[in-house]
Every structure is written in structure tokens, then in C-alpha cells.
């Protein structure tokens, strides 16, 4: 995979390029909007990593130019503005997603994959977290080498949580996905599902945990004791 | 001198009243005296003219008969001197003080005192005034002397004059007293306008620098002061903005090298060192983010406020913060009523306040702590933890302790509380804290409910 990095700060560009190369992602660096335009016209990139503060203008103008050219290449914006400022300014309007400096390289890669997936460019059939693998097509769940048998609802629930691993899945969303809008849902039906799934994962020796955030939703994450070290 | 200064009032109205009343007293005393004197002088002049006129009329009737001067007074003129009433009398004497002609009852008139010079002269003798007019008849000098008893007709004049002044004086004083009343009213209006401007000025604080003093309605003399104050406010506001902008720019400039630093430290081989470096980079990033948030808050205005569901907000913020809370080994839960709790404010800012409190709870408590977010139907959101808490007798002191503890930590959590406070100020809400050792801490945000009538005031 090759992406275009539009970044005018050489130190950051070099560090980022190195970090990405270590994860199998190659990148070309453009130092200005003008350079970026030429490179986009000359080559095909899987995604664009765009710093919004550039010497020859606002990075958002590049996004507008891309969209005017009917370029569908996904854009992940990087901003030095604060998260609050960015939200107040409605910064995310133009880009597919945005990150605030400084960021974790894993976070960047995850967002990049998410953006590519949304574009259908990355058909990731298998989701991995900890020692757990989940096939999104077949719905097969494997912990280590041990397959875990799931009911249809548990499979749906696991799929929902694993697609958003490390993030909270709201109760509302889970109920809508698992039970649909017509089916009556008991107040603790979801908690029962979570409890069963949690027991099965524990029994299989999974290094991930399903956390309940009462009043909010559920989250699957790598358990603290196995993440250490 | 000092005591005199003490008596001198500082109030403008009191000063004006004092000076004006003093002036009125002086006028009330001096003016009648002056009037009396003017009237007397004028009366005397008129009298003198009258007497001269009469003397000339008599002199005009002098004839020469057989080398001797003879007086033939016409009837109407003679009648004036027929009776001794009011002391009217005349006499014509020669150089040897021999009477040539005279009115009856001459013996009652002290005409001997009359000077006999070569110019017309007036004289005074007892109650009588008179005039001595030199004339020449048949080659010899004669003097026509006319007198009048001032006591009799003069008394009438004096009485009239005194009565006039007595009646005129109260009218005059009444008119003069109107002046301080009118002045007081004018000044009271001025003071009222200035006081209104002062009240407005009192509402101006660091967060309300956009308020300006109303120049309209102020007297022209006070307008420069109001204008200068407004100019000062504008400069202050600009300098506040500049400061906020400067902070935002500095933070902005720090982010890019920090990002490079954060990426490159991943290459450090020693995991312990890498962890420490990453922690310090994360702390730096946190401080930078909060500095920028504070600067952004300076530009926030209340006209963007809307009504929204605090329950929905709490759910999304707890969901957003949950990963880092769990990563720290703590747990979190939300208790909120099923029905929406509509509050009024800025959704992003209210979310930031709640996120800061949750993130603070995560930073200040050990692993295993449970953080509970409680939303009440009255618009309060409490962030409660069962951590070690902090000893403080009153909530404000507790807040101060957290503050100082935060600053010792120097990871920007203290800025976090500043941000929460500032956000609650903008919302006209409150931030409260309760904490006891061993019983954890509880931070409470209280937002105004939508439709509670506390809509934005201009």
C-alpha cells in the first residue's frame, strides 16, 4: 500500500514515514499543496495523509480540489489545532477522518484502515484482537487455536463489539442490531448476552475482556493483565 | 485648615447647595441695604433738582422797582409757600443778610445756615434741607434760599422705601432659593446617569469585556470619561484576545515537534525507557491540548447556546472516556433517568467539562477505583469516585487542594479544572466538589435547565 503524505515539517515527515514503513505502509512525501497536486496527478495513492497547516495554504483547499476533480481517494487530516477548536470549527467536514497532533502511530494506522475499509478498498475479512480472531464473513470465532461455538445472537454481538474493539458500543446500537426495531427487548436481555459471551471467552482463555459500562454500553478490549509487558 | 476641609463636603450636590445658600444669605442682607442707599441718594438728587427749580422760578419773578429789587410771585407759586406745611419756605437775602423778600413763617426756618457763595449750593440744617441760588438784581448780589423740612415728606418716602424693600426681600429670596432646587435636580439627573454607568461598569469582568458604557443619555461633560473607559475596555479586550491567540499559537507550534517526538520514541529499544518517554510526551500533549482549549474558550459566546439532552451527552462522553478509564485499570458507569434532561448551553463545551472531570477522576485515583457519573433530572451531573479522596473541611477548600495537587503533578490536570470552571461560568452554572479521606471525591456540574427562564441577557 502506498500513500501520499502532505507534510511540510521534514522531521515529522521522516519520523512518520519510518514508523509507517515498519508497518508495511510506504509513503511519498509532498511538502506543499502544489507538490501534492502534481504527485496526485502523476501517481495512484491508496490514501492521503494531509497536514492542514501548509506553507502555501490551508490543507482543506486540497480536499476541495480533489473533490472537484471527482477524486475519491480517502483523506485523513492531521491538525495541530486542539480537538475542541477543531470540533468548534467543524474541521472534520472535508476530510474522511482527522487526527490531532501528537498521535499514536497505532491510532493512525487504525484510523487509516478504518477509512480504507469504509471506502471498500480494504476487504478485511478477519478481525484480530489479542489472541482472538473473528471471520466477519463466516462468523467463526477462534481463541488461540480453539474455536468458540456461538449462537446467532452471540455472533452478531461479537461482530459488533470486535468491529469497534477498544471503543464503546452503545446499548441502543446493540439492541437495534441484535433485536431489530420490532422485537420487544427485555431490560436485561443484552446484559444476559454479554454475560454468556464473556463466560465463553473466559473459558477459551481469551486475552480480551468484554466490559460493561452501565448505563452506556459495552466494549471489548485487551485485558489489562495480559496487555502488561 | 484641616477642620475647614473636613466641613467641606465631597458631594457635588452638597457643595453647590452650601455655596448657593451662603450666597443667598449674603444677598438677602446686602441687597436691601444697597437698595435703601440707592433710593436715598436718588431721592436726594431729585429733591436737590426740585429745590433748584423752585429757586429759579422765584428768581425769575424778581423785578426792579425804584432801584430796589421787588418780588412779585404769581398766585399759584405763592400758594405753595402760603402754609408752613412740610417746611417749604423761601427767602431772598442780600449781601448784608438783609431779607429782601420771604415766605410767611420764615422764623421757623433755619435759613441763616445757608451758604452765600457765588455758586448754587445745597445745605442741611436739622431736619431741613435747602438750596442757596445766587442771582443779581439791580446790580447787587442776592441769594434765593429755598428750604424744605425733610422730616415730614421724607418720612413718607422712607416708609414707602422700607415697605417696598420688606416686601421685595422675601420675593427675591424665594426666587433665589429656586436656583439651588433647579441645580439639585439637574445634578441629581447627572448623578443618576453616572451611577447607572457605574452599575454597568461593575458588571464588567474578565469574561464580559464586550460590555460597553452607554454614552447616550450622559451629560456632555461626562461623555469623555465614558468614552475613555470604553476605549480602555476595547484595548483590554484586544490584549486578552492577543494573549489567548498567543497561547493558542504557542500550543499550535508545539504540536508538530511533539508529534515527531512521539513517533520517534517508538524506536527506543529499552521498553522501560520507552514507556517513560511516552508518558512524558503524553503529559506534554495533554498540557498543550488544555492550553489550546482555554484559549478557544476565550472566544466562546453565549449566542450559540441551544437546548439539548444532558442524558444523551453524558452517554456519549462516558463512552468516549471509557477506553482510557479501563486502560488505567478503573471502571466507569452512568446513572441517568430514562426521560431526557434538557439543559441549555453549548454541547461541545458541556461535553468537554464532563470529559475533563472524568479524565481527572481517572488520573487521580489508583487502579480498581470505580467512577460513577450521575445525571439528575434537575440538570446536575456528578462525577463520583470511590478513591482515597482528600481531607478538606469545606468544598471550596477541597477544590483548592485539588487545584494545588494538580499543579504539583504538573500534567495539566489543574488546567482541566480551570477549563471546567470557565465553561461553567459561560453557562452560568456551577462547579462544586465534595471530598473526604477514604470516601472518594465528587465533582458536580450544575447546568441551567432549558426553559428555566435563564435565557441569555443582553
Automatic annotation (TrEMBL), chain A:
GO cellular component: cytosol; protein-DNA complex
GO molecular function, one term: phosphorelay response regulator activity
Coiled coil: none
Keyword terms of this UniProt record: DNA-binding, Phosphoprotein
Classification via Pfam families: Response_reg, Trans_reg_C
Residue range(s) of DNA binding per entry: 124-222
GO BP annotation list: regulation of DNA-templated transcription
Residue(s) carrying 4-aspartylphosphate: 51
Keyword DNA-binding set for record: yes
OmpR/PhoB-type domain boundaries: 124-222
Name of the featured protein: DNA-binding response regulator
Domain Response regulatory: 2-116
Xref: SMART domains: REC (SM00448), Trans_reg_C (SM00862)
Gene3D superfamilies: 3.40.50.2300, 6.10.250.690, Winged helix-like DNA-binding domain superfamily/Winged helix DNA-binding domain
Amino acid at each position: 500500500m502506498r500513500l501520499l503524505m502532505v507534510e511540510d515539517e521534514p522531521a515529522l515527515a521522516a519520523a512518520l514515514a519510518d514508523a509507517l514503513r515498519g508497518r508495511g505502509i510506504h509513503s511519498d512525501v509532498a511538502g506543499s499543496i502544489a507538490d501534492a497536486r502534481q504527485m496526485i496527478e502523476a501517481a495512484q495513492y491508496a490514501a492521503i495523509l494531509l497536514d492542514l497547516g501548509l506553507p502555501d495554504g490551508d490543507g482543506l483547499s486540497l480536499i476541495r480540489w480533489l473533490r472537484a476533480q471527482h477524486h475519491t481517494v480517502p483523506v485523513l487530516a492531521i491538525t495541530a489545532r486542539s480537538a475542541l477548536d477543531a470540533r468548534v470549527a467543524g474541521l472534520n467536514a472535508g476530510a474522511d477522518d482527522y487526527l490531532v497532533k501528537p498521535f499514536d502511530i497505532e491510532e493512525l494506522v487504525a484510523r487509516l484502515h478504518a477509512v480504507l475499509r469504509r471506502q471498500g478498498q480494504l476487504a478485511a475479512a478477519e478481525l484480530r484482537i489479542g489472541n482472538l480472531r473473528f471471520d466477519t464473513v463466516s462468523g467463526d470465532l477462534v481463541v488461540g487455536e480453539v474455536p468458540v461455538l456461538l449462537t446467532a445472537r452471540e455472533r452478531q454481538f461479537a461482530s459488533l463489539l470486535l468491529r469497534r474493539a477498544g471503543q464503546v458500543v452503545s446499548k441502543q446500537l446493540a439492541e437495534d442490531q441484535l433485536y431489530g426495531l420490532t422485537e420487544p427487548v427485555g431490560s436485561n436481555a443484552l446484559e444476559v448476552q454479554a454475560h454468556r459471551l464473556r463466560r465463553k471467552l473466559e473459558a477459551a482463555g481469551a486475552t480480551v475482556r468484554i466490559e460493561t459500562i452501565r448505563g452506556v454500553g459495552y466494549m471489548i478490549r485487551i485485558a489489562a493483565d495480559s496487555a502488561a509487558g | 485648615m484641616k477642620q475647614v476641609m473636613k466641613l467641606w463636603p465631597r458631594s457635588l450636590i452638597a457643595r453647590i447647595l452650601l455655596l448657593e445658600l451662603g450666597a443667598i444669605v449674603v444677598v438677602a442682607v446686602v441687597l436691601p441695604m444697597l437698595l435703601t442707599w440707592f433710593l436715598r441718594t436718588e431721592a436726594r438728587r431729585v429733591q436737590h433738582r426740585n429745590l433748584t427749580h423752585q429757586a429759579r422760578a422765584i428768581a425769575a419773578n424778581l423785578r426792579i422797582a425804584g432801584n430796589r429789587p421787588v418780588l412779585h410771585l404769581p398766585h399759584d407759586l405763592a400758594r405753595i409757600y402760603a402754609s408752613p406745611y412740610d417746611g417749604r419756605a423761601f427767602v431772598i437775602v442780600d449781601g448784608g443778610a438783609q431779607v429782601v423778600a420771604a415766605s410767611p413763617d420764615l422764623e421757623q426756618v433755619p435759613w441763616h445756615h445757608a451758604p452765600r457763595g457765588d455758586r448754587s449750593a445745597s445745605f442741611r440744617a436739622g431736619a431741613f434741607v435747602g438750596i442757596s441760588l445766587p442771582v443779581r438784581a439791580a446790580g447787587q448780589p442776592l441769594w434765593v434760599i429755598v428750604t424744605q423740612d425733610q422730616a415730614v415728606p421724607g418720612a413718607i418716602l422712607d416708609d414707602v422705601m422700607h415697605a417696598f424693600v420688606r416686601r421685595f426681600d422675601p420675593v427675591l429670596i424665594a426666587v433665589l432659593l429656586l436656583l439651588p432646587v433647579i441645580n439639585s435636580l439637574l445634578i441629581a439627573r447627572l448623578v443618576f446617569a453616572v451611577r447607572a454607568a457605574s452599575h454597568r461598569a461593575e458588571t464588567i469582568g474578565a469574561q464580559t469585556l464586550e460590555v460597553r458604557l452607554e454614552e447616550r443619555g450622559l451629560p456632555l461633560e461626562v461623555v469623555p470619561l465614558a468614552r475613555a473607559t470604553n476605549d480602555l475596555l476595547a484595548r483590554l479586550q484586544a490584549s486578552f484576545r492577543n494573549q489567548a491567540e498567543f497561547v493558542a499559537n504557542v500550543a499550535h507550534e508545539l504540536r508538530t515537534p511533539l508529534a515527531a517526538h512521539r513517533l520517534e520514541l517508538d524506536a527506543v529499544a529499552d521498553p522501560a525507557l520507552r514507556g517513560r518517554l511516552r508518558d512524558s510526551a503524553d503529559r506534554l500533549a495533554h498540557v498543550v491540548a488544555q492550553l489550546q482549549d482555554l484559549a478557544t474558550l476565550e472566544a466562546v459566546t453565549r449566542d450559540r447556546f441551544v437546548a439539548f439532552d444532558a442524558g444523551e451527552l453524558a452517554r456519549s462522553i462516558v463512552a468516549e472516556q471509557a477506553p482510557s478509564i479501563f486502560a488505567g485499570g478503573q471502571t466507569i458507569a452512568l446513572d441517568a433517568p430514562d426521560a431526557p434532561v434538557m439543559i441549555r448551553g453549548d454541547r461541545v463545551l458541556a461535553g468537554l467539562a464532563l470529559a475533563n472531570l472524568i479524565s481527572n477522576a481517572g488520573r487521580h485515583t489508583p487502579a480498581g477505583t470505580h467512577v460513577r457519573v450521575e445525571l439528575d433530572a434537575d440538570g446536575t451531573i456528578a462525577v463520583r469516585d470511590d478513591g482515597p479522596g482528600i481531607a478538606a473541611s469545606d468544598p471550596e477548600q477541597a477544590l483548592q487542594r485539588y487545584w494545588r495537587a494538580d499543579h504539583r503533578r504538573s500534567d495539566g490536570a489543574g488546567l482541566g479544572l480551570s477549563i471546567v470552571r470557565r465553561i461553567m461560568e459561560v453557562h452560568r452554572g456551577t462547579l462544586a466538589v465534595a471530598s473526604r479521606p477514604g470516601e472518594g471525591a465528587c465533582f458536580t456540574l450544575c447546568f441551567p435547565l432549558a426553559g428555566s427562564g435563564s435565557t441569555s441577557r443582553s
